[in-house]
Amino acid sequence: MLIRQHAITMVRMRVKHRSCVIFFCSSAGEYEQARPLIDRLLAREQPPHIHVFFFSRSGIEFMHARRETIAHSLAPIDTVWHWGTLFAALQPDACIVVRHEWWPGFLATAREYAKVCLIDGTRSPGTTLFKRSMKARLAGFFDRIFVVGPDDADWFSRELGITRARLAVVGDTKYDRARDRVLSNPNLISSLATDLERVFPERYRLVAGSVHTPDVAALCAAFRKLDASTSKKWLLVLVPHEVSQGKTQEILAQVRSAGLRIVRMSQLADESGPISAEVLLVDRMGILAELYGVARLGYIGGAMHHKVHNVLEAAAHGLAAACGPYYKNSAEAVRLVGEGMLKVVTDADRLTNWWQENASRTSQPGQSAERVAALCGATALIIPELDTVMRKSPT
User: Fold this and answer.
1) Fold matches, 2-171+377-391 and 186-374
2) pLDDT tens for residues 356-369?
3) pTM over 0.85
4) pLDDT 10s digits, 156-198
5) Rounded to whole angstroms, how far apart are CA atoms 365 and 371?
6) Domain spans of the chain?
7) pLDDT score, position 362
8) Domain 2-171+377-391 indexed as CATH 3.40.50.11720
9) Whether 70 contacts 211, CB under 8 Å
10) Neighbouring C-beta atoms of residue 252, cutoff 10 Å
11) What topology is assigned to 186-374 in CATH?
């Protein structure tokens, strides 16, 4: 019953537009990768109806935090019956899967209604024979596969049996999105800078994004190891990977046990003048990319214990940035480390040394911003081919 009610709502939105494009994303990160395409489609004189399906609720929470109005839903149980009801309502002209979400029920149904594309396709080294066999079968549902680089094209062809005619090497829309975020929100960046300067005047900022408990431990220890003349000039801005009540309380307790004073961002509106906290906890989703725009230094979380998160948002602002040792899950991080634009720190001592060495660095954009700009362009290559795909969609 709920699926049918949802489908009725979809029909009401769909009938206002001549065409429709569906995006299937895992979570907020994949949605951000889709945004350059979505933005350019919506900027048209006759924009299509866009509907985004998420595997994770965190993607929906991210959209709500940013007050975005693009139609979106949590993916249903992966059966052709569930998807068939929703596709019948949306009548899509194209279906775009972002990187990872290869669901058999979705793909089988999508293929009956529209052309199906994969964007930001990357190879999966170390995949077992069974998984490669499954991926090869699912890859057969895609009409067009846009891969990041030549090595990815080779892998799709060799391991999954995809013909070269179905592959296009276009780059990664992550770079386009990182650059777009720098250019599209100057007012938000300016507002954040004004608010922080009011409450923390004449303090440099190290913005630590997508942090987990091991990151917070290393950052707090590094802060305490800075010499006194340096530490009093700095504000440590912590942006948790998960912004929930439980995680917020955990980080507050962790920072206080390290002997540092901490305040939440949500409390700043009530502050009329300077406060003496050394740490700011960002308890608000969706503004990390803009916060990097008001930082002197950046730190990207996750790599102290598991895997690094998005390194491009800091790089797009030209920040000197650091991360932990577990960064090789990210091709972007590997590239930046190899080119000397991202520092790997394995413990608090090395983090302190890096922080101290970069304490006097100006906030002018550095080489990493130029590198991100040079690697943009995937969206511009995908859009014309997407138009061709949509013209050939089943009727």
Assistant:
1) yes
2) 998 876 544 578 89
3) yes
4) 999 999 999 999 999 999 999 999 998 888 899 999 999 999 9
5) 11
6) 2-171+377-391, 186-374
7) 53
8) yes
9) no
10) 17
11) Rossmann fold (3.40.50)
